[in-house]
Inverse folding.
């Protein structure tokens, strides 16, 4: 389904997803962030550039290599090879789970979702993407959530931004794909 070699090759030169610009509007000046599924490290770099400390997690050695190359010598950045379903998250001010949650199975998602809620400090921010049921990858076995399920997941959070995008487009490596994605930024109440 996902050509991981092509993905990591393309991600090394791709710009940060514009959704992070929306997150920037809500970030305090300093803090600590967790980047779940760090890919090629653009998200970790986003936080490091703002003076935040960041722990970037990914299970794939290609992601770790790309992130380490991107952030070589940067202070306050910890790049960790880990299965996010199996580790405990430290308390933190922000968590990003960009284009990673739908790669988990149902049990793994439930564990990670619980850990996100426990790790976020009061007032902490969450950036996440969820696949909708009309996404091509949902038919290929990726985890999808209808809008009503996302509403339930976000109960107890202050939703700062939510956008549902459904369109034909391409993957990072140029494959045609129908996208159905929910972009969410939410704050854990103080």
């Amino acid at each position: 389904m996902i050509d991981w070699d092509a993905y990591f090759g393309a991600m090394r030169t791709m710009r940060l997803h514009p959704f992070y610009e929306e997150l920037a509007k809500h970030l305090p000046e300093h803090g600590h962030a967790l980047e779940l599924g760090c890919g090629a490290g653009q998200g970790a770099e986003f936080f490091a550039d703002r003076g935040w400390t960041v722990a970037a997690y990914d299970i794939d050695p290609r992601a770790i290599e790309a992130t380490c190359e991107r952030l070589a010598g940067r202070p306050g950045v910890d790049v960790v090879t880990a299965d996010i379903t199996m580790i405990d998250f430290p308390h933190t001010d922000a968590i990003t789970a960009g284009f990673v949650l739908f790669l988990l199975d149902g049990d793994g998602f439930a564990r990670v979702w619980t850990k996100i809620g426990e790790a976020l400090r009061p007032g902490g921010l969450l950036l996440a993407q969820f696949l909708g049921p009309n996404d091509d990858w949902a038919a290929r076995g990726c985890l999808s959530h209808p809008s009503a399920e996302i509403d339930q997941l976000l109960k107890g959070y202050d939703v700062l931004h939510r956008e549902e995008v459904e369109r034909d487009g391409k993957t990072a490596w140029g494959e045609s794909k129908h996208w159905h994605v929910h972009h969410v930024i939410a704050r854990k109440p103080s």
About this structure: The radius of gyration is 16 Å. The mean pLDDT is 93.
